[in-house]
């Protein structure tokens, strides 16, 4: 069970690393809110094809937990991705990928603050390394800029996005006893519905870009892999090893995201990117070691 959870989370983070690259490729070919709506519409249509029997069976439980399930979709799916794609208008795909390394640290912080989840000194040290890595990338290699709060606007948007996803993750502990198809379908529907007002706002502001061929390819990738496949596997991972340990695997997103950004987009790999990656991976290693010592 643990090995399957690990494999599920590795594939998840690979798809999410590619999501940052896809979002960068979307610029000029499909706008952020249109992309957010399109990916979740595709995810809803795909999951609906295979989940109707399960949805009928689970409907009594779904109806009682509809606000919670819609909350998962609005916060974890729609809000996170709308902020991520908007951030890519102002910062690089590498930065977006590496700032996501802050999610595991926030998961531990929120779990401790809200549920008094036990944290070891080794885990705190691991979180600290992750935090330094996130700050390093947000400050573009110059931590002194944080004194004057000179943050790239895109990086700031990503800090809000990772906070939203960390909250979504810890509240998965309250997920109702329904099948994984239902657990994917209802939040995906909520994400698509929540994205509609954002599309209307984008149209009204004159910023909407409807997808061309490249834009449609991005929408299809994000709808199939970054949305459907990744979210289902992430839920499996959380169920298998818990939110804290599953969250640590998100530190692999910057690894995959950075490698894909350099290979696909030709983005420049800076020294501070490498330092941030080392800190992120060092953080996950130390925190996981701490978990084994206290487990």
Automatic annotation (TrEMBL):
Q: How does it sit in the membrane?
A: Multi-pass membrane protein
GO cellular component terms given for this protein:
plasma membrane
Q: Which residues form the EamA domain?
A: 5-138, 153-286
Annotated coiled-coil segments of the chain: none
Query: Which cellular compartments is it found in?
Result: Cell membrane
Q: Which UniProt keywords apply?
A: Cell membrane, Membrane, Transmembrane, Transmembrane helix
Is-annotated flag, keyword Metal-binding?
no
Question: Which InterPro entries has this protein been placed in?
Answer: AA-Vitamin_Transporters, EamA_dom, EmrE-like
Q: This protein's superkingdom?
A: Bacteria
Any stretches that span the bilayer, and where are they? 38-55, 67-88, 94-114, 121-141, 153-171, 183-201, 213-236, 248-266, 272-290
The protein's matches in PANTHER family, at most eight in alphabetical order, are given as: INNER MEMBRANE TRANSPORTER, S-ADENOSYLMETHIONINE_S-ADENOSYLHOMOCYSTEINE TRANSPORTER
Q: What is this protein called?
A: Drug/metabolite transporter (DMT)-like permease
Q: What is the lineage of its organism?
A: Bacteria, Pseudomonadati, Pseudomonadota, Alphaproteobacteria, Hyphomicrobiales
């Amino acid at each position: 069970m643990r090995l399957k959870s690990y494999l599920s989370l590795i594939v998840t983070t690979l798809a999410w690393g590619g999501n940052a690259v896809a979002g960068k490729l979307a610029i000029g070919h499909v706008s952020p809110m249109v992309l957010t709506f399109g990916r979740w519409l595709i995810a809803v249509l795909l999951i609906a094809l295979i989940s109707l029997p399960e949805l009928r069976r689970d409907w009594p439980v779904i109806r009682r937990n509809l606000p919670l399930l819609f909350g998962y979709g609005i916060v974890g799916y729609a809000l996170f991705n709308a902020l991520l794609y908007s951030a890519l208008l102002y910062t690089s795909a590498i930065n977006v990928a590496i700032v996501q390394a802050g999610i595991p640290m926030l998961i531990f912080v929120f779990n401790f603050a809200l549920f008094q989840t036990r944290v070891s000194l080794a885990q705190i040290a691991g979180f600290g390394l992750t935090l330094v890595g996130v700050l390093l990338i947000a400050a573009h290699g110059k931590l002194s800029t944080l004194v004057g709060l000179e943050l790239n606007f895109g990086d700031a948007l990503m800090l809000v996005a990772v906070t939203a996803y960390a909250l979504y993750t810890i509240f998965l502990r309250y997920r109702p006893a329904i099948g994984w198809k239902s657990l994917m379908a209802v939040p995906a529907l909520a994400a698509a519905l929540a994205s509609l007002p954002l599309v209307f706002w984008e149209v009204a502001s004159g910023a909407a870009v409807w997808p061309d061929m490249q834009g449609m390819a991005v929408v299809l990738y994000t709808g199939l892999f970054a949305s459907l496949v990744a979210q289902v596997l992430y839920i499996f991972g959380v169920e298998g090893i818990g939110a804290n340990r599953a969250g640590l695997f998100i530190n692999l997103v910057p690894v995959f995201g950075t490698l894909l950004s350099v290979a696909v987009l030709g983005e420049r790999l800076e020294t501070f990117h490498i330092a941030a990656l080392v800190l992120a991976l060092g953080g996950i290693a130390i925190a996981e070691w701490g978990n084994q010592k206290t487990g």
